[in-house]
Design a protein that fits this description.
Keywords: ATP-binding, DNA-binding, Helicase, Hydrolase, Nucleotide-binding. InterPro entries: ATP-dep_Helicase_C, DinG/Rad3-like, P-loop_NTPase, RAD3-like_helicase_DEAD. This is Helicase. Pfam families: DEAD_2, Helicase_C_2. By secondary structure, the chain is α/β, with parallel strands linked by helices. It has 3 domains: 165 residues, Rossmann fold; 89 residues, no CATH class; 206 residues, P-loop containing nucleotide triphosphate hydrolases (Rossmann fold), CATH 3.40.50. 38% of the residues lie in helices and 13% in strands. It contains 20 helices and 16 strands. The strands form 3 sheets. A 7-stranded parallel beta sheet has the order 3-4-2-5-9-1-10, with helices on both faces. A hairpin with an 8-residue loop joins strand 7 and strand 8. It is globular, with a radius of gyration of 25 Å.
Length: 575
């Protein structure tokens, strides 16, 4: 790596905010001998541009000896972030590669078939005459030979050990704050009817402990192997059978890795097992702090690393969570350039939103949202509902209060479409969202205000969370919630001249700020220090609808008998 050329590799024609200083600090951190640099850069810092400059410091073929690796990877957990990179003219030399399911086959009669279900994976000994023109294999070949290959973190991990995407000189991970928890989720093994087609043929025992889980996985892997052999004997598979074969092969690999890691006395990974409903019920096997998993899939993939995020809140805790030695890691702090008065926090807390108290608190929050709507009659708003159960209750309450004409929702399958429709709308609609605290750019009039309905604490009924709290890891618990809050607050203020208000409706959020104060970045602490109670209009639903056209109101009146806009959530995300 050649950190000295980081400024020359910066892709924009000029700097904004603190970018020039950030590049100097990142260069100094690498030149001090650190192999990993954490870049804590708030919203609007231009993290993707910084990431491109860092990736450009990787050795090239002309600068390396024969045995040295070259080039760079750019990766992010978020598909939307990769989409933004692909559309940014300043980042056109980042060569994006996606999974097979994102590409369509080009063979006659197969143009609506994704590559992962094309004849080359359905038919035994199929010889594709146009593989050199296949959009997936073509993009893969191009990306494997480009200076900077860009991909999602999932694809990056899946290609660990491949000949195509081997080790490179530099790896840049954008939005890296949840790397440890994301790896835990990615490495979780789900044993259920959804993952095991022959579920009804398995006599699932009441699993009490990990030793029994190991014995059960051996039986499952044997059945999966037998079913895969049956599929391989067929001359041609259907699309469904291809998906079944691939799913079973992935399951076999995961189960083998779990047993190998569990029996390795030197492994740092702690495993937990969940079977909520006992005998015959699904089983989930989860790793905690999967350092060994990250070593193979991430840390062995490069020489030097840059991890960028607005919310890497505690260097030592982050390093412990992802298996890094803090002495080999530098933290670069990038200052915020957005005026604090443009990103105000308002206290509208109505009580606690715990599962036991939610039914009492939520009607008061709904009434407060009506008042906030009246305070912003001509401006779009976003409500972070935290779960689909809260979203459904809140939608019903707002309908009952007579302001449903201005409210939009989404379900699990229609998230992206509903979000796009809301953003395109000219009406000052209010979007009730679930799990949209990250990777959402609502600059300018796309959204001027938002409400946080619930403190986003991790679910204590999750065995990993419970285990951490048993080990007295309350700092992790509060940091995880604070990280989500900070991410959410950044959705509506995206530029120095942008502005947007954030209303805090759960009193537990105020308690969280006290408990996690020492982990707050200075720029967010400045927001919290200015926290105030707003002067809202009285409860008046007609004023909340003042910005809507009369035609919009009438259309809603005619459709009030339909339930929930066809939105039937299957379950509460956390509760």
């Amino acid at each position: 790596m050649y950190p000295a050329r980081i400024t020359d590799e910066f892709p924009a024609p000029s700097y904004r905010g603190n970018q020039k200083q950030a590049l100097a600090d990142i260069r100094a951190a690498f030149e001090s001998g650190k192999d990993v640099v954490l870049v804590r850069a708030p919203t609007g810092s231009g993290k993707s541009l910084l990431a491109r400059a860092i990736a450009g410091c990787a050795r090239t073929a002309g600068e390396a000896a024969a045995e040295q690796v070259i080039d760079a990877y750019y990766t992010t957990p978020q598909v939307s972030q990769l989409d933004d990179v692909a559309e940014d003219a300043l980042l056109e030399d980042l060569c994006v590669i996606r999974g097979k399911n994102n590409y369509d086959c080009i063979l006659p009669g197969e143009t609506d078939t994704p590559v992962n279900q094309a004849p080359c994976v359905r038919e035994r000994k199929f010889d594709c005459q146009v593989k050199h023109r296949c959009p997936y294999f073509s993009d893969r070949a191009i990306a494997s030979n480009r200076r900077i290959a860009a991909m999602t973190l999932a694809y990056f991990m899946q290609t660990a050990g491949s000949d195509v995407f081997g080790k490179r000189d530099v790896v840049v991970i954008d939005e890296a704050h949840g790397l440890g928890e994301w790896a835990e989720m990615y490495a979780t093994i789900d044993l259920s009817p959804q993952s095991i087609p022959m579920w009804n043929d398995i006599d699932v025992p009441d699993i009490d402990g990990l030793d029994e889980a190991v014995a059960f996985t051996e039986r499952v892997e044997h059945l999966a192997e037998r079913r895969v052999k049956e599929l391989r004997q067929k001359a041609e598979l259907t699309g469904e059978e291809v998906a079944e074969r691939d799913s079973l092969n992935t399951l076999r690999q995961d189960l083998g890795w779990f047993r190998e890691d569990y029996t390795d006395t030197e492994s740092a990974t702690t495993w937990v097992v969940d079977q909520a409903d006992g005998e015959h019920a699904p089983v989930t096997i989860k790793p905690m702090n999967p350092e060994r998993y990250l070593k193979h899939t991430v840390w062995d993939r490069g020489n030097r690393f840059a991890l960028l995020s607005a919310t890497i809140l505690n260097k030592e805790a982050f390093c412990a969570n992802v298996g890094l030695d803090p002495s080999n890691v530098a933290l670069v702090e990038v200052g915020h350039t957005f005026p604090v008065e443009n990103r105000p926090l308002y206290d509208v807390a109505q009580g606690k939103m715990t599962y036991e108290q939610r039914d009492d608190t939520l009607p008061d929050i709904a009434r407060t949202i009506v008042r906030i709507m009246a305070n912003h009659p001509d401006e779009k708003g976003l409500v972070h509902c935290h779960s689909y159960a809260i979203q459904e209750q809140l939608k019903d309450l707002l309908d009952d209060f007579g302001v449903g004409a201005r409210v939009r929702t989404h379900d699990k399958d229609g998230r992206d479409g509903a979000l796009s429709a809301w953003k395109r709308s000219d009406n000052p609609d209010v979007f009730l969202s679930v799990k949209m605290e990250e990777a959402l750019d609502l600059e300018g009039d796309l959204c001027r205000w938002q409400v946080l309905c619930k403190a986003p604490y991790p679910n204590t009924r999750d065995s990993r969370v419970a285990r951490r709290l048993e080990d007295d890891q309350w700092g992790w618990y509060y940091r995880t919630a604070l990280r989500t809050v900070i991410q959410a607050c950044g959705r509506v203020v995206r530029a120095p001249n942008d502005h947007g208000a954030t209303y805090l409706a759960d009193s537990s959020l105020l308690d969280l700020f006290d408990r996690a104060e020492h982990d707050m970045p200075d720029w967010f602490r400045a927001q919290v220090d200015r926290l105030s109670e707003p002067d809202l209009p009285r409860f008046a639903p007609d004023r909340a609808l003042a910005g809507l056209s009369s035609g919009t109101k009438r259309r809603h009146d005619r459709s009030r008998s339909r339930s929930g806009d066809g939105n039937h959530p299957l379950s509460d995300v956390w509760d």
